[in-house]
Amino acid sequence: SIINQRSLVSTDSQDSSRLCLNDNNARVIHVSLNALRTLLPLIVMHLQS
User: Which residues contact 16 (CB under 8 A, 6 or more apart)?
Assistant: First the structure.
């Protein structure tokens, strides 16, 4: 499970998406990472302005 989570963090491929669907924990982590990746630039821009 830990290995799966690490590979989800390091890769952004279709394979990681398939892993997400198989492992519920990994899916939650993947969704959280995607949300962070989307929100982080917005937060940084807001803080810098």
Answer: 7, 8, 30
